# Entry
Amino acid sequence: MTSELPTATPGAPAGTRNHDIAEYALRLGDDALILCQRLCAWVTNAPTIEEDLALSNIALDLLGHARVLLGLSGRSDGTNRSDDEFAYRRTEREFRNTLLVELPSGDFAATIARQLAYTHYTSLLYAELAASADEGLASFASRAAKEAEYHCMHASQWTVRLGLGTEESHRRMQAGLEHVWPYAAELFEADDLTTRLDTDGTAVAPARLRADWEREVTRVLTEAGLTVPAPSWEATGGRSGIHTEAFAPLLAEFQSVFRQYPGGNW
Amino acid sequence: MSAAVRLDLDRIRARVEAVPDPELPMITLADLGVIRSVREGSDRVVEVVVTPTYLGCPALPVIEADLRTVLAECGQPEGRVTWALTPAWTTEWISEEGRRKLAEHGIVPPGAAGAPLPVRLGLGRPCPNCGSLATRPLGPFGSTGCQTILVCTACRESFPHMKAV
# Structure
């Protein structure tokens, strides 16, 4: 990330404080940022060179989403922090991403299972947020929805290919789904913040997204000959900064250059 | 606005529109459809309003730097580049001229946006080498994020296609 990049995006002008929007944008931005970091690790390790390109380009799109959302958060919370400041100057407990996106990627099937869960969620969420009463969120989502739709198609096609492929690819895809499904629940967690934002037309009630999400992923999994997991537990904690033990090493690597050269620009 | 300033804006607009896209230099920013306006702001500073293609596109900072250079060269070093996300960019804004130049360079231009995704991607994108319509997706992204790779089942050549969004 460089500091001179599209900063003059629409949204709350500096000084207009709205802590609810700041916190909400931080949650969505951190999801995109951390998943971006996880996907980047696939470069040179994916099954084919086309897939190296696919996962890294999806990561790049997610970085773009994170930059807009974190910038919006900084303008809304009154600190005017840049995207770089959010990414590099926070500690583990200050990140608001779900545990789903920070999980180690696992094998390719587990990565696709996570992509399936996340991209169906963002496709639905951004399509709704495009009509948000907040101009910053709405303008971000109107563009991001198109990108999320494409990422969703990528994940769905791989799910079907692996589900209907060989006995081994089917087994791994099902195992990947079973592994990530308990974590998908956190995407739909409701709290006072989401209730307030839903009431004033800024965001969408997570419960409504969940019903649509379940219908959509069930459609893909059925086509793929896979079973929709029925987890006995649901992960929680990321939205309040309580992360898994995999998160600190991720952050250490992600922030290592900045920590060696504080304030450096490239 | 005085006639002199308007004349100046016309000159700046022509220069701005002629800036080549950093990743697809065969087309200009005007061809790409990302220049929203070149105007004088309420503070009398010349402002170029641009729409980003993809939010994470690595060309965005280069476009911004190129536009700043043009503004400086036009005697407006204090000129402003503003990014507007709404309305979201669509490949329908690529000019006929832009489509012609993309095709000339072997990149099959985008079809209509808004159709269901697999249709936008595959069907009806003729192979630029042999003209066959029997083409299928090979990879969802190409040498740039806005492209996809298709392969022709007739002549077996692969070719880039700019995705309709």
